[in-house]
């Protein structure tokens, strides 16, 4: 999802080895981070359900698999899903959720 989210360009990853070559001129190695310190296990599980259905045809299959096999440092968490009939309704409800979170949780 990070490769196509809000205008991100997958070419940054695809061209990285050639853009940032080693001192000897060979392509730079590309590593995959496998630990998520940002999201708990519940969020990672939910995102896997969505991202496994998202084709990333320009990336090698083993790279896609490696990026989708993150392990969470933290357990738990909560995932909520909302659907809205229009974009403006969605924005209004997101603003309301943020307002409530600010008032209730600081």
Q: Residue share in helices?
A: 40-55%
Q: Helices and strands: which structural class?
A: mainly alpha
**Radius of gyration based on Cα positions:** 18 Å
Oligomer: single chain
Cα-to-Cα separation, first versus last residue:
30 Å
| Series of H and E elements | HHEHHEH
State which percent range the strand residues make up. under 5%
Physical arrangement of strands within the biggest beta sheet: 1-2
Task: Give a structural overview.
With 106 residues, the chain is mainly alpha-helical. The chain contains five helices and two strands. It has one domain. Strands 1-2 form a two-stranded parallel ribbon. The longest helix is centred in the C-terminal third of the chain and has 19 residues, at 87-105. It is elongated.
Short description:
This protein has 106 residues and is mainly alpha-helical. It is 42% helix and 4% strand. The protein has helices spanning 11-14, 16-19, 41-51, 61-67, 87-105, and strands at 35-36, 71-72.
